[in-house]
Design goal:
This protein is 3% helix and 54% strand. By secondary structure, the protein is mostly beta strands. The radius of gyration is 25 Å and the shape is globular.
């Protein structure tokens, strides 16, 4: 019987805590089983996790080909796929754009929004090659009490493969061939190798990835002269040194370099992290020092080349320990972060206005203290209470409390629910008054947008309640959620019309050349609410079916007449079946249904609803070699982009993948 269904002794608590810092062995990819670490900051059984959480395993990530992880998250309830203005795949969680979803790599924050304010968050889920991912933990709903800003929609923690105890590796080659020969095919090559250097005391892993697709010959009917699907070039390389000075301690040094090109925009990232993990009888500790540098080689505007560079430096630590009185388990931690942006073009001040000229760099510092306490009130009932105090250089102090309960009705049924407050501070770009950029469709005759020191942080209050069932061949869950967002940061209110411009609330004035100026502003409120459901059925020992469904209502509630938030489908359904026909053969099918999306606030322009069917097969023709093949978008259902906030769907295409392990 799992720890969740009997009183949690201190020994059990210590065992769970130690799992949080003991990486999987590498010899057994499933060694963590249903244990997750993101929802509470420590290892717990997924049924006990104080949050709505889903896990994607490495095997699930290999079933379908994709350029980036974002394309593979659509099977998780509450998660939908969209695309940024430059075509990069982005995700939405519970109706919030990817900027409201915190992306972690092994628990470390990544953030490209400062370097690429238009769709920058779209890059964050793609900094890790798929070949190096052990699993992905997706937490739906606010998690600011543990992780701070940007965790309003949820948290995605990309957990990479650990250093193996024995030498092993893999090579994977993929290609995707389009039926429409005007569309460019894609190729991908990746490798990973890992093993010991000095017994169990010192080990190393290395990995790399190359992913390429050329511009398509077909042009978008919306953007004349632009390819329907833009060029993609992703390159990754990195590694980890893992040192165990003794059985209680583990030290890791991670380094990686990445380059991601989408169309004419290229982002480069270099990251370095040093982490110490310790298990001291009744206490576990973790201390991480990390830094990353993201370089935007193109800048923000199609017609210009204005490179910029952002740097992030973080230091965080936490300690977890049981408390004898009251059967409690406590986690306390500190977090300090400094962000810096160097942009010699967009931080130089407004064009033609000498009084706004300033330094080409800006920075901000913040620190935080957080505590979380799991209290086991009865054998089946646990309550988690937490709070995080953040102090921001420009916005002072902010509290992010949460309370969450988990009640095991019996061995099969679990009731979960909670309430939490979350916040999101303006980015360096949004909050810098001397930052500015051309907009409104032209670099010379459009409008000009600027940052503002008058902005307030966005705050969200979220409630959810759900029930989970797991017994025998079936597992299922249903969760109802409601999130109210205040002070939403917005720049949609802008126009090149010089007559209309002064009537807009965020109008600032005119540039000397006559272009109107608009600043980022807070709008009063928005609200998302809905239902998430999932069902998994092990029909036979060789056949399983998984289904996820999301109902979403997402609206701008700032005015008397509520308007829909754009690019959000009310209904999303995903059904996947997997059949192991033979120990060496596997067949799979995935069907995704998405209802219509509003593309303007009046709801007069809509992206039609559509369904997509993918078929796949895998043949393990040698013990260590697997060939995968499949047809994506079997019905060849294509929808071209019809507005600036829309995106095109790819038609029927064939994929082939060869994976060899050694």
């Amino acid at each position: 019987m799992p720890c969740a269904l009997r009183p949690l002794s201190l020994a059990c608590l210590r065992a769970l805590a130690s799992l949080a810092h003991a990486q999987p062995s590498g010899d057994d990819p499933a060694s963590l089983g249903s244990v997750v670490v993101t929802a509470s900051g420590n290892a717990v059984d997924i049924r006990d996790a104080p949050a709505s959480i889903s896990v994607l395993t490495a095997e699930e990530l290999r079933v379908r080909p994709a350029h980036e992880l974002a394309e593979l998250l659509t099977g998780v309830e509450g998660v939908t796929l969209n695309r940024s203005a430059n075509g990069s795949p982005t995700i939405q969680m519970r109706g919030f754009d990817q900027a409201y979803t915190l992306i972690l790599i092994d628990g470390k924050r990544v953030n490209a929004s400062t370097s690429m304010f238009r769709g920058g968050a779209a890059y964050d889920s793609g900094w890790v090659p798929l070949d190096d991912i052990e699993r992905v933990e997706v937490v739906r709903g606010p998690m600011s009490s543990l992780y701070g800003a940007d965790a309003i929609g949820g948290v995605i923690n990309i957990i990479t493969k650990p250093v193996s105890k024995t030498w092993k590796g893999s090579i994977t080659a993929d290609t995707v061939l389009h039926q429409d020969r005007d569309l460019a095919d894609s190729q991908k090559l990746g490798f990973a190798v890992s093993g010991p250097l000095a017994g169990e005391a010192l080990g190393i892993k290395l990995y790399g990835n190359y992913d390429h697709r050329s511009d398509s010959q077909a042009e978008s009917s919306f953007n004349a002269g632009y390819p329907l699907f833009a060029r993609i070039l992703n390159r990754h390389a990195g590694g980890q040194l893992a040192w165990r000075p003794d059985a209680r301690q583990r030290v890791t040094l991670d380094a990686d370099v990445s380059s991601k090109t989408q169309g004419m925009y290229t982002m480069e990232r270099e990251a370095l992290a040093l982490r110490h993990q310790g298990h001291w009888d009744r206490m576990t500790t973790e201390l991480t020092l990390a830094t990353d540098e993201i370089r935007n080689l193109k800048g923000m505007i199609d017609a210009q080349t204005n490179p910029n560079q952002s740097n992030t430096y973080t230091l965080n630590g936490k300690a977890s320990f049981p408390v004898d009185w009251g059967n409690q388990f406590v986690t306390v931690g500190v977090d300090a972060r400094k962000e810096r942006l160097y942009d010699r073009a967009n931080l130089a001040g407004w064009p033609g206005v000498p009084s706004t000229q300033g330094s080409p760099s800006t920075s901000v510092t913040q620190y935080a203290l957080f505590v979380e306490d799991e209290i086991r009130l009865t054998e089946r009932l646990a309550v988690t209470l937490g709070n995080r105090f953040d102090h921001h250089e420009h916005f002072g102090g902010n509290h992010s409390p949460r309370a969450y309960g988990v009640f095991h009705l019996d061995d099969a049924w679990t009731l979960k629910g909670g309430i939490s407050r979350a916040f999101r501070t303006p980015t360096l770009v949004q909050n810098s008054p001397n930052w500015g950029s051309v907009s409104c469709g032209s670099a010379t005759t459009g409008c000009y947008i600027i940052g503002s020191r008058d902005l307030q942080p966005e705050t969200a209050l979220s409630k959810e309640i759900g029930v989970q069932y797991r017994q025998g061949a079936h597992s299922a869950s249903v969760t109802v959620f409601d999130t109210k967002l205040k002070n939403m940061i917005d720049i949609d209110s802008r126009t090149r019309d010089v007559t209309l411009a002064p009537s807009l609330d965020n109008f600032v004035g005119f540039l000397p050349d006559g272009r109107p100026i608009f600043s980022y502003q807070n709008i009063h409120s928005a609200r998302t609410r809905g239902l998430e459901g999932s069902w998994a059925w092990q029909v036979t020992p060789t056949l399983d079916v998984k289904t996820s469904y999301t109902y979403l209502s997402a609206k701008n509630t700032s005015k008397a007449v509520h308007t829909p938030l754009l690019n959000r489908s009310r209904h999303n359904l995903n059904v996947a079946a997997n059949w192991r026909v033979h120990p060496d053969w596997n067949l799979g099918a995935t069907w995704r249904l998405q209802s219509a999306q509003p593309l303007n606030s009046a709801n007069t322009v809509r992206k039609p609803g559509h369904g997509l069917l993918d078929l796949s097969a895998a043949w393990q023709f040698r013990r260590d070699t697997t060939l995968r093949a499949g047809i994506l978008n079997v019905a060849d259902r294509t929808l071209d982009r019809v507005s600036a906030s829309d995106y095109s769907d790819e038609g029927r295409r064939l994929f082939l993948s060869l994976n060899s392990r050694f």
